[in-house]
Task: structure prediction
Amino acid sequence: MKRPNLSLYLVTDDRYFQDRDLIGTIEQALQGGVTALQYRFKKKPARQMYEELLVLRELTKRYSVDLVVNDRVDLAMAVGADGVHVGQEDLPPDVVRRLVGDSMYIGYSVNSVDKLRDIEHLPIDYIGFGSVYETTTKENYKLVGIEGLRQATKLTDKPIVAIGGITHYRVQEVLSAGAKGIAVVSAILGFEDVKRATEAMVEAMKGYYRKLMHS
Result:
């Protein structure tokens, strides 16, 4: 199984692609430096998603970026994705593991510190944890806060990818709380110049690690 590379993890969202070319926009983000792409759409037919994923699979390979499919284990398997991400309303992780075997890694969404205690036994490879800050991307979200993130990273050995309202100027706070990766939607897709927005996130991350080395 491929080891996840989730340090800068871009998640797609229907609202940012209504009047925008999907493939061209994603390529800009890949050029800017994202390390993983989660394909997450709720309103598209399966056939369209499959065809888009085939193109994105080739594109992510070209840039050595991980491709993760949200919810749809069937589509992830059909295109040979690197990972699949599920939440509490989706197929249980142990069922997903039986389906995918060791061919891909599994991510799981958690939105409270309490729930972390219940999932240690699950066959998952990383945890998506949030919302760390207030966000406009999801309507029904639970705010865990930076303190919740700090607690979460101490409660589990599994790598935590923080999500929710993270912008380039919040990167340092999130990484110093113990997150192993940062998942974003609007911090990249909310800008016209996607490549530049991605580069700003990458630079903020590099700045944090440079500081860490010299402290």
Summary: Residues 141 and 148 are 14 Å apart (CA to CA). Strands lie at 8-11, 36-39, 66-70, 83-86, 105-110, 126-129, 160-163, 181-184. The two ends are 35 Å apart (CA to CA). The first strand starts at residue 8 and ends at 11.
